[in-house]
Amino acid sequence: MTVYAGPSELVGEPLRVYGPAGPWDEVRETLTELGSAVLVSRLGDWLPAGGPPPDADCAQGAACLGCELCRVVLGADGGPARVPDRTVLGRDWARYQAMSHEDVRSRFLASRLLLKYAAGEVLQAAPETVDLAYKLGGRPYLRGCDQVDISLSHTEDLLVVGLTRRGWIGVDAELSERRLLGTGAEKQICTPHEIALLAAMPEYRRNPALVRLWTLKEAYSKAIGQGLRFRFTEFGFAPGARRVQVLRPDGSPGTGEEWSFGTWSIDRQYTVSVALFDAGFGDTADIAARTMLDDGLVDALIASEQFEQPDASEQGDVSERPGAREQPESFERMDGGGDPKANSFTG
Questions:
Q1: Under 8 Å CB-to-CB from 150, ≥6 apart: which residues?
Q2: Which long-range contacts (CB under 8 A, 24 or more apart) does 213-217 make?
Q3: Domains plus CATH for the chain?
Q4: For residue 50, is pLDDT > 80?
Q5: Are strands 236-237 and 167-175 parallel, antiparallel or unpaired?
Q6: d(Cα 199, Cα 188) in Å, to the nearest integer?
Q7: 3 state SS of 108
Q8: Which range among 29-43, 190-204, 272-286, 287-301 shows the weakest confidence by mean pLDDT?
Q9: pLDDT in tens, 82-135
Q10: Which of 110, 123, 137, 228 could form a disulfide with 289 if both were Cys (CB 3.0 to 4.6 A apart)?
């Protein structure tokens, strides 16, 4: 699979992560080679099959090997050690507890666990020591580690995380079958130039093209830190080009070669897009937390994230969903197999 990625491919294929166990070696190798990585995971990889259990005693006690609040990681002696998700979530624990809708709770917990475990692997730090914070508008970032940019998206049971040490990154995911065409969404999503191109396409291609446009625009607006505050009718994308490029509303170029984009189909069910800005400072090969931060600051950050161990009444009692790896994901290219015409909105 190839993706539109500018003058050089700085974005590789999505990497499947199956929970706290990873696999993380491939993630680190991709970051070493490309400087960026897109990770995909499923809700069931991070939660028990039945969803979040109530805050009650874990039925397995000390023998629990994977309920929602008792993740198994390697301890200091190399053996299994329980690190409660309450500790990993850190300052997000209060937000999680305040959520009353079960689906929202599940996605919030699973997405933050994926993000913190991924960041911890990249920074060579324990996930509970990663300080996840939020900018105005809700964009997540790693406090004290601005050499690494992150982005997060989730929809239904799909979780997506983007990581880069080259500049800025944004990711977005949407159900491929989500109906946007004919709902009035075109006027909210598209520039006049894009609307004209969509109208010229065969009807069966219009809705998939609109979903792809939506995810590209979401990813780009996340990368620049604007989110939905940046009106989608104020920028567009170039159909039929070998390299996806941001355009002004009239179709003229809006960005240059510093931006790279990619879109994938995940299991023919989800459309996932990434936007990557290369700041031009080169790749930062060593991004271990203790290399980037002085010891005093690291110790202060770790101390600020220390929480009391949860009482027994806060432990879960549902085991982790088995068989997560039995059905491998399939990633399908959305760029027409290398044919620039195949990706054109004009059909």
A1: 115, 119, 140, 141, 142, 161, 162, 163, 169
A2: 213/189, 213/237, 214/172, 214/174, 214/180, 214/185, 214/189, 215/172, 215/173, 215/174, 215/263, 215/271, 215/272, 215/273, 216/172, 216/244, 216/261, 216/263, 216/273, 216/275, 217/189
A3: 15-322+330-343 (3.90.470.20)
A4: no
A5: unpaired
A6: 15
A7: helix
A8: 287-301
A9: 456 788 888 998 899 899 998 998 999 999 999 999 999 889 999 999 999 998
A10: 123
* Token pair belonging to 286: 């060593």
How far is the first Cα of the chain from the last one, in angstroms, to the nearest whole number? 21
Sign of CA dihedral 147, 231, 227, 243: negative
CA distances from 3 to 148, 273, 320 (A): 22, 10, 34
- Return the pLDDT at 4: 36
Q: How many CB atoms lie under 10 A from the CB of residue 138?
A: 9
What is the per-residue pLDDT across 162-177, written as a single tens digit (0 to 9) for each? 999 999 999 999 999 9
332 pLDDT band (50/70/90 cuts)? low
For 39, the token pair is: 């990770």
What is the maximum alpha-carbon separation in the chain? 64
Three-state DSSP state, 133: strand
CB 173 within 8 A of CB 227: no
User: Do you find a cis peptide bond into 23, omega within 30 degrees of 0?
Assistant: yes
37 near 16, Cβ under 8 Å? no
